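step 4 of 6: structure.
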Amino acid sequence: MLPTDLIKGSLKTIILKLLEENGRMYGYEITRKVEELTAGKIKLTYGALYPVLHKLESEGVLITEPENFNNRIRIYYLLTPHGHSVVTEKLKELSEFIESLQLIVESKPGLNHA
Amino acid sequence: MLPTDLIKGSLKTIILKLLEENGRMYGYEITRKVEELTAGKIKLTYGALYPVLHKLESEGVLITEPENFNNRIRIYYLLTPHGHSVVTEKLKELSEFIESLQLIVESKPGLNHA
DNA sequence: TATAATATATAAGTTGTTTATATATTGCAA
DNA sequence: TTGCAATATATAAACAACTTATATATTATA
């Protein structure tokens, strides 16, 4: 498993992307999906996940749809129209970030330390 | 410029990678180099940079070589043997992280919301 | 009957950042 | 010659965000 500090800044974007891709999801499902997609390398903790979801809701990025499934409460989250544009923006940022990281990781030494 | 929260978790690895690639660097030089490599998309703040450098020094990952250049003090940082193995490890983690992010970003919808 | 999996939630503690501030020299432009 | 930008390091206070621990409750499995 990857160290959690790496994931920190991308947590919100990951959640938003999954919501856009899957229509609507509940919290527990999001953690399962992330583990599945990354072969267990990324695991979200609930202490991080729920506060982020609640914040996104308060910002009008997503809305909730509580449902009952087998006497268990499932709170589905889905993007608002505003949320969709936020996802687009965040995904663009994430792509640029990944590109920038690769530029650094693949950089060759300068000529300044011959 | 990219939002700083994205960069957070990768800061240490970025610094270590640049030190390995360039032999030795001083703090100001590191910030210049990161801006140069990423076309201004990533900018390190000194309030983040120096504490990280000092911590890496206290952990035995790097050592310092203060030098005088034009009456200005430059504190060069260079990796210890231990530091080199840390870089290798951190870069591997970062690569896995990037791969994981791409798996999520490129993921297609599940069949569960027909 | 006990444990694992499912499902959400929050508070306390920790960590790590931003922002503001301090200090000092060199080079350039007005 | 005065002031500003660039160079160069450093730290404290404030803030943000995460981890860890804890709480609650149902269903499925051993």
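step 5 of 6: annotate
 - Strands of chain A lie at 25-26, 62-69, 72-79.
 - Residues 4-106 of chain A form a domain with the Arc Repressor Mutant, subunit A fold (CATH 1.10.10.10).
step 6 of 6: archive
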